[in-house]
Amino acid sequence: xxxxxxxxxxxxPYLKATKHTFTNLVLPGGKELVAVAAPAGTRLAHTDIKIPxxxxxxxxxxxxxxxxxxxxxxxxxxxxxxVTGSTAVVGVYAAKTVVTQFVSSMSASADVLALSKxxxxxxxxxxxxxxxxxxxxxxxxxxxxxxxxxxxEAAVNLSELRDPQxxxxxxxxxxxxxxxxxxxxLGCVPIANAGDFGGYYCPCHGxxxxxxxxxxxxxAPLNLEVPYYEFPDDDTVVVG
Length: 240
What we know:
This is Cytochrome b-c1 complex subunit Rieske, mitochondrial. By secondary structure, the chain is α+β, with helices and mostly antiparallel strands. It is 29% helix and 18% strand. The protein has five helices and ten strands; from the N terminus they run ααααβββαβββββββ.
């Protein structure tokens, strides 16, 4: 095993050169380095800068430096609240105006509203007959029932109905039945005064409705729909 002295002797020239280089770099001439203090900078006062005058923007209550601003804080606070409240009121009013105009622009026009209603003269429909009208793109059935039909439909047992509904709950005037002519199964148009119950019959899939528009037989799940209507007088009905 090589001794420490042998290894030192082999690399001695390199160690010497390193030592010489280190001495020349760090300690030239074998003397210690002495730190030399750098001269301190001189700070100048810029007395030529003009300070802005904000007196025009200050309230008269706080311009006097000898008075405390707390003495006028209540009045200044009230003024701030007044400005904030006024701004809020104006903002709410503006928002209300914008929303009102937006909603009004989406509402139906007068001609559209006119088409959404239909006025029917009942004197033109004889007793026992059904007349079909077109309303909102759908067939509308208006039926003038006889006394026998009224009594028959009023006596129906609700437990026998698929969609239980009493006849008096479907009419405003027992003489008149007003329903949409759209089958509740798949939307076909039923035939009036037909079927096993003398009301309406759907030829598409065989649904039978009575003279009150209630489903009695077939695949339809619900009764014929009753739209909103009213009687302005005894001879007129307005649907819609």
